[in-house]
Amino acid sequence: MPLIGFGTYKTQGKDVIASVLDAAFSAGYRAIDTAAVYRNEEDIGACLPGLLDKYNLTRDDIFITSKLAPKDQGREKCRDAFHQSLSQLRTKYLDLYLIHWPGTQAMKPHDEQQKELRKQSWLELESFVNEGKLRAIGISNYQPGHLKELLEYCNIRPAVFQNEHHPHLIQKEVMDLCHENGIHYQAYSSLGTSAKDNLVLTDPVIQEIANKHKKSVAQILLRWAVQQDVGIIPKSTNAAHIAENMKVFNFSLTSEDLEKIGKLDKQHHYCWNSFGIC
Q1: Which residues form the NADP-dependent oxidoreductase domain (predicted)?
Q2: What is the reported pLDDT for 1?
Q3: Per-residue confidence at 263, pLDDT binned at 50, 70, 90?
Q4: Residue of 29, 38, 97, 188 marked active site
Q5: What is the pLDDT of residue 52?
Q6: What is the dotted CATH code of the domain comprising 6-262?
């Protein structure tokens, strides 16, 4: 699995998808992160054959991740949703499939059925691995308790834990659990919120470090993650930014830089928070 992938959250429309994926492949990305709830799997699937031909690649040269929507928790719904994703992405297998959220849509957070449906979904994903339709499975947005619960009954351990992670939200307990159990930790929203008043991109400490290294703030944030072996999936519709975000392997942050950034943690979620789900 590449340490850096191309995120597609909020990226919709066939022409837009074709343009950004072309820019991503040109810049060297070989991993694509999508999800059922992003509503762009079908457009990605339609664009991929032409892009693979253009860049002289095969299906095995790229890494495709998708995710189970919260409304599709449970054995039967999970199976139907997974096969729909396969069909829309026009592929016989996925490299990685995640349970996007530990809860079930429209169900009360403390409903005990949450645990059972989550378990059914996971065991169904294991069957897809055994059938050769999935190469790896994982989770997203779980709380530490959800992960510990999963590790008690799973036959196949999660390969990846995808989570909101940036200098204002350093989820150390989850990271430690992942390291202890051989699970790759992958960050989403590495650049913070997509709002105009992005408090991560405008953080004066990050800006100071960016000026010192003569890099963009985004590059500092992404380098901070990969230098700690945290996977990243930055997204953009700007071709220049797409290329720039890939250029995070030709410089290093100092121990002093890392210490300064580590002190910025506010435990602030800019995206979703599954705290309270049974």
Answers
A1: 4-265
A2: 94
A3: very high
A4: 38
A5: 98
A6: 3.20.20.100
Using CA atoms in the order 25, 9, 166, 134, what is the torsion angle rounded to 10 degrees?
Answer: -70
Is pLDDT at 194 greater than 90 in this prediction? Answer: no
Residue 272's pLDDT is what?
87
pLDDT tens-place string over residues 80-131:
999 999 999 999 999 999 999 999 999 999 999 999 999 999 999 999 999 9
**pLDDT of 15 over the 90 cut:** yes
Torsion of CA 53, 57, 60, 61, to 10 degrees: -140
Residues annotated within the binding site are 100
Bind-site residues for substrate: 100
Q: Give yes or no for a contact between 32 and 5, defined as CB atoms under 8 angstroms apart.
A: yes
The model's confidence at residue 198, banded by pLDDT at 50, 70 and 90, is: confident
| CA 187 – CA 164 distance, rounded (Å) | 6
The secondary structure of the chain, three-state, reads CCCECEECCCCCCHHHHHHHHHHHHHHCCCEEECCHHHCCHHHHHHHHHHHHHHCCCCHHHCEEEEEECHHHCCHHHHHHHHHHHHHHHCCCCECEEEECCCCCCCCCCCCCHHHHHHHHHHHHHHHHHHCCCECCEEEECCCHHHHHHHHHHCCCCCCEEEEECECCECCHHHHHHHHHCCCEEEEECCCCCCCCCCCCCCCHHHHHHHHHHCCCHHHHHHHHHHCCCCEECCCCCCHHHHHHHHCCCCCCCCHHHHHHHHCCCCCCCCCCCCCCCC
Active site residue 270: no
